From TrEMBL:
Biased amino acid composition, Basic and acidic residues: 290-303
Biased amino acid composition, Basic residues: 304-323
Annotated spans, Disordered: 136-157, 289-323
A single GO cellular-component term on record: nucleolus
GO terms classed as biological process: endonucleolytic cleavage in ITS1 to separate SSU-rRNA from 5.8S rRNA and LSU-rRNA from tricistronic rRNA transcript (SSU-rRNA, 5.8S rRNA, LSU-rRNA); ribosomal large subunit biogenesis
Role according to the record: Involved in ribosomal large subunit assembly.
Origin: domain of life: Eukaryota
Main location: nucleus
InterPro entries for the chain: Ribosom_reg
Full protein name: Ribosome biogenesis regulatory protein
High-level lineage: Eukaryota, Viridiplantae, Streptophyta, Embryophyta, Tracheophyta
Length: 323
């Protein structure tokens, strides 16, 4: 840490430590103590800013960028130390049997082809595909294909290895926590969420499963009508509203339904469903308008009738406007 004007500066952590004593008198008021602390904090920030601007910078679109030096003060760790990974079944077995791991070369000499080949992978040593003839065994049944049996045995070995690997991942997640596994395989090993809440997902009840299955079955082009149903599967329930139509073929009650429908339309258009037979306000307004029209007409027919003449006003050369 650099010592400058009574301050210790650690640019790696952007930390400034004031070495001076507090020197605050008990007789000072709360406002005076706050003012003194703010002044010292301003001095510390000024020292840190001077140190930062003294570092050589590189131009960038967002502004100048500086490379901070390595921190000199070791701060305590925020998170706890990760737990060690639990040993796998093979590691426990090897430790019990005293088997030591030794590094072998990636190449091995192939006696059959007289060349160096990879120990594993493409064109490896003793590749099964390079064996054109397989000797029959006394225990083999007549009519069996040895090449097909060899392929089936290989598939079973691969499946067994994948199962063992998944068991090891589950054991590691159980004893070592989620941090013992990479984030890419946490979801495959456990049912716990990778991020977000620490609570395990709750179990889905029967009603929610049925609702999700109904949505999935009705998400096709035909709405699930022409999809093949499983044995014992019930018809999906219609969630939305059903639109009702009048029957096309004349049957019982169809005439009454059409009559009610027509009456509802007429009531909306003509306002026959109103409780008041006569609108008093509307009638008074119509009467007042008629009286005003008659008075205006009578005044216009009298002696004081004003004659309206058109006046011409010049607005330019050879241009007139009629008012």
């Amino acid at each position: 840490m650099d010592d400058q004007e009574g301050f210790l500066v650690d640019l790696g952590n952007l930390l400034v430590v004031d070495k001076r004593k507090a020197g605050l008198s008990p007789s000072l008021s709360k406002e005076e103590v706050t003012r003194e602390c703010l002044a010292r904090g301003e001095q510390a920030l000024q020292v840190l800013a001077e140190k930062l601007f003294s570092i050589p910078s590189t131009p960038d679109k967002a502004g100048p960028i500086v490379q901070l030096p390595a921190p000199t003060l070791q701060l305590p760790r925020e998170k706890p130390l990760p737990k060690p990974r639990p040993p796998t079944k093979w590691e426990i077995f090897a430790q019990r049997k005293g088997i030591k791991k030794r590094k072998r070369s990636k190449l091995e000499f192939d006696e059959q082809n007289q060349e160096w080949r990879r120990r594993y992978g493409y064109k490896r040593v003793r590749d099964e595909k390079d064996i054109p003839i397989i000797d029959a065994k006394p225990s083999d049944e007549i009519g069996t294909d040895p090449f097909a049996n060899r392929s089936a045995q290989k598939k079973s070995r691969v499946a067994k290895e994948a199962k063992n690997q998944l068991e090891n991942l589950k054991r590691a997640a159980k004893f070592g926590g989620k941090g013992a596994l990479p984030s890419t395989i946490q979801l495959a090993a456990t049912s716990l969420p990778i991020t977000g809440t620490k609570e395990t997902p709750r179990r889905i009840n029967k009603k929610e499963i049925g609702f999700a299955a109904g949505l999935a079955s009705s998400s096709t082009a035909s709405g699930g009508k022409f999809d093949r149903k499983l044995e014992g599967e019930k018809q999906a329930k219609h969630v939305g509203k059903h639109r009702k139509f009048l029957p096309v073929v004349e049957g019982s009650g169809i005439g009454h339904q059409e009559l009610q429908q027509s009456q509802r339309v007429l009531n909306k258009v003509l306002g026959a469903s109103s409780n008041d037979i006569l609108d008093i306000n509307k009638a008074v307004n119509v009467l007042n308008v008629q009286d005003e029209k008659r008075a205006h007409k009578a005044k216009g027919d009298g002696k004081g009738k004003r004659k309206w003449t058109s006046k011409k006003r010049s607005i330019g050369k050879n241009k007139f406007r009629t008012k």
